[in-house]
Design brief:
This protein is of the alpha+beta class. Helix content is about 30%, strand content about 20%. It contains 15 helices and 18 strands. Strands 11, 12, 13, 14, 15, 16, 17 and 18 form an 8-stranded antiparallel sheet that branches. A 5-stranded antiparallel sheet has the order 4-5-9-7-8. Bound molecules: flavin-adenine dinucleotide (FAD). Flavin-adenine dinucleotide binds near residues 87, 92, 95, 104 and 404. Keywords: FAD, Flavoprotein, Oxidoreductase. InterPro entries: BBE (IPR012951), FAD-bd_PCMH (IPR016166), FAD-bd_PCMH-like_sf (IPR036318), FAD-bd_PCMH_sub1 (IPR016167), FAD-bd_PCMH_sub2 (IPR016169), FAD-linked_Oxidoreductase (IPR050416), Oxid_FAD_bind_N (IPR006094). Pfam families: BBE, FAD_binding_4. Its cofactor is FAD.
Length: about 450
C-alpha cells in the first residue's frame, strides 16, 4: 500500500504499475464491498492524505482533492452556506461515489453528483496528468461521469455548489412490520406530492432492533424546508406508531452523518475486536452491496413478499441481522432531464434505486448469502422494476442499474447499456493496458465474484 502525499507521487506510482503490469487499484473511502479497492499481491494507492477542500463562495464552486470524504466537503461548504450533492453517508469517498454517478438527498433538486461536476484532474495510466471538462478532453469527461473509476486516478474534482440557508428536516423511524401496508400507501403518493425537496427511503433490517426481536421497517426521511412543512408532508407516516423516531431539524453537514452510526464501517471501533492478522481467513466481517430498481406504484403484496423472504433469511442466519434492503425514493425529475447518452452514466429513468447491503461473519455462508441477495435483487428488478414495463427501451429509459450498487459480477453491458461501445473505444485510447479494471472491468463481459 502506497500512501501518497502529492499528485506527482500518484503519477509515479501509476506509471510504475502500468509499466510493470502490476495489479493496481486506488483506495478512497474504502466503502466498496467487491474488492474494488484492494489488490492482493499488487499495489493499493491510498489517497487518505489528499483530503483538502477549497470553497470559492464567489463562484459557488468547491475544489476537492481525490482522497476527500463527503464529510470534508459538507463541513467546508457549510461554512459558506453552500452545499454539494453528495452521498447520504459522509464517510464515503467523494471520488469513489461521484465517478460512478453519485446520489444524495439533494439529487431531487440538483441531480446527480456528476451533473454538478465541472472538471476532474486525473492521472492517466501512463502517468500523465490531464484536466477533463466540457471543453477540454471532452470525450474523457463524458466517460468520467459514470465510469470514471475505469479511466484513472482522480486527484482533484471541481463541483458546482448551491446556496443553502436553513436547516433540513431528517431522521429515521422504525416500525413493526404490521405498518408495511400504510408505508407502501404513502410511497404510492410520493410522486404526486414531491416537488423535489424530499426523500423517502424505507426497507428492512434487524439491526438495532430496539424493543423488537424481529425484522422491522426502517424509514429514512428528508425534507429540505421547515419543520412544519416537513411534518405536514410526512404526516401519514409520522402519525403511525413508531418504535424509534429520530426526526429533527439538522444542518446539512449533520444530515449526512445520521446513517453513519447504522453502518458497520463507522462503528468498527465500538465493535468487538477482531484480530485482522488472524491466519483463519474464514472469520471476519463480510459484506456485499448489490442493487436493483423499482417503479411506482408498489404492489403491497409484492413488498410484503420481499419482507417475508428477507426476514426469513435474517432469522435463519442471526449473524446476518445487520443486513438491510432499502428502497430509495429520491425524486428522479432532475436526473431524467439528462439523456442516457449524454454521459457514461446510463441509469436515468422513471424508477428508483434499491440497495441491499448484506453483512455476515463466516466464509462458509459466502455463497449462500450472496445467492439469496442476488435472488432478491433480481426478483425486485424482474417483477417490479423498469424492465417489466411494456415498451421499455434501455437506451431511452436507462438500464436501471446504478454502477456503484451493482455487484461486480453483473455484466458491464447490463450496467452501461448502449454506452458500452463508446466506453470501450475510450478505454483503448486512455487505458489500453487496462490498469484501471478493479471496479467494473469494461474490457470483459463480467468479473468473477470476489
Ligand atoms: C453503506 C453504503 C452507503 C452508500 N451510500 C451511497 C450514497 O448515498 N450515494 C451513492 O451515490 N453511493 C452510495 N454508496 C455507494 C458508494 O458510492 C460506492 O461504494 C463508492 O464506490 C465508494 O467509494 P469509496 O471511495 O468510499 O470506496 P473505495 O472502496 O475506496 O473505492 C471504490 C472504487 O472507487 C475507486 N476510487 C476511489 N477513489 C478514487 C479516486 N480518487 N480516483 C479513481 N478511483 C477511485 C476505487 O479504486 C474503487 O474501485 C454507498 C455504499 C455503501 C457501502
Amino acid at each position: 500500500m502506497v500512501r501518497v502525499s502529492s499528485v506527482d507521487q500518484v503519477a509515479t506510482v501509476v506509471r510504475f504499475a502500468t509499466d510493470h503490469e502490476i495489479s493496481f487499484t486506488t483506495r478512497g473511502g474504502g466503502y466498496s464491498t467487491s474488492g474494488a479497492s484492494i489488490a492482493h499481491g499488487g499495489i493499493v494507492l491510498d489517497l487518505s492524505k489528499l483530503r483538502a477542500v477549497h470553497v470559492s463562495p464567489e463562484s459557488h464552486t468547491v475544489t476537492v482533492q481525490g482522497g476527500a470524504l463527503w464529510a470534508d466537503v459538507d463541513v467546508a461548504a457549510a461554512r459558506h452556506h453552500l452545499v454539494v450533492v453528495g452521498s447520504t453517508l459522509n464517510q464515503i469517498g467523494v471520488a469513489g461515489a461521484t465517478l460512478g454517478g453519485g446520489y444524495g438527498w439533494l439529487t431531487g433538486q440538483y441531480g446527480l453528483a456528476i451533473d454538478n461536476l465541472l472538471w476532474v484532474k486525473m492521472v492517466l495510466a501512463d502517468g500523465s496528468i490531464v484536466t477533463a471538462s466540457e471543453t477540454a478532453h471532452a470525450d474523457l469527461f463524458w466517460a468520467i461521469r459514470g465510469a470514471g473509476l475505469c479511466f484513472g486516478v482522480a486527484v482533484e474534482l471541481g463541483f458546482r455548489a448551491h446556496r443553502q440557508e436553513g436547516h433540513v428536516f431528517a431522521g429515521t423511524l422504525r416500525f413493526a412490520p404490521d405498518k408495511l401496508p400504510r408505508v407502501v400507501a404513502f410511497v404510492n403518493q410520493f410522486e404526486s406530492l414531491t416537488d423535489g425537496r424530499q426523500g423517502f427511503w424505507f426497507g428492512f433490517t434487524m439491526q438495532d432492533s430496539v424493543d423488537m426481536d424481529q425484522c422491522h421497517i426502517l424509514v429514512v426521511l428528508f425534507y429540505n424546508g421547515s419543520e412544519s412543512q416537513a411534518r405536514q408532508f410526512f404526516r401519514p407516516v409520522l402519525e403511525l406508531d413508531s418504535v424509534v423516531d429520530t426526526t429533527q431539524m439538522l444542518s446539512y453537514d449533520g444530515l449526512n452523518g445520521i446513517l453513519n452510526t447504522a453502518d458497520i464501517t463507522a462503528r468498527r471501533d465500538s465493535l468487538p475486536k477482531i484480530d485482522i492478522t488472524h491466519p483463519d481467513k474464514s472469520v471476519g466481517f463480510r459484506r456485499s452491496l448489490r442493487g436493483s430498481n423499482i417503479t411506482l406504484p408498489l404492489d403491497a403484496e409484492f413488498v410484503q413478499s420481499i419482507y417475508d423472504e428477507f426476514s426469513a433469511m435474517v432469522t435463519h442466519y442471526p449473524q446476518a441481522r445487520d443486513s438491510r434492503i432499502l428502497l430509495e425514493f429520491v425524486p428522479n425529475g432532475e436526473v431524467k432531464k439528462v439523456a442516457n447518452s449524454a454521459t457514461a452514466f446510463a441509469s436515468r429513468g422513471p424508477y428508483y434505486n434499491v440497495s441491499s447491503l448484506f453483512e455476515w461473519a463466516e466464509a462458509r455462508l459466502d455463497d449462500e448469502i450472496r445467492s439469496r441477495q442476488k435472488g432478491m435483487m433480481d426478483r425486485i428488478g424482474g417483477d417490479a422494476g423498469i424492465a417489466r414495463h411494456p415498451g421499455y427501451n434501455p437506451s431511452t429509459h436507462g438500464t436501471g442499474l446504478y454502477a456503484n450498487y451493482a455487484g461486480r459480477d453483473v455484466p458491464v453491458e447490463e450496467i452501461f447499456g448502449s454506452n458500452i461501445s463508446r466506453l470501450r473505444e475510450l478505454k483503448q485510447k486512455y487505458d489500453s493496458h487496462n490498469t484501471f479494471r478493479k471496479w467494473h472491468n469494461l474490457n470483459k463481459h463480467a468479473n468473477p465474484p470476489d
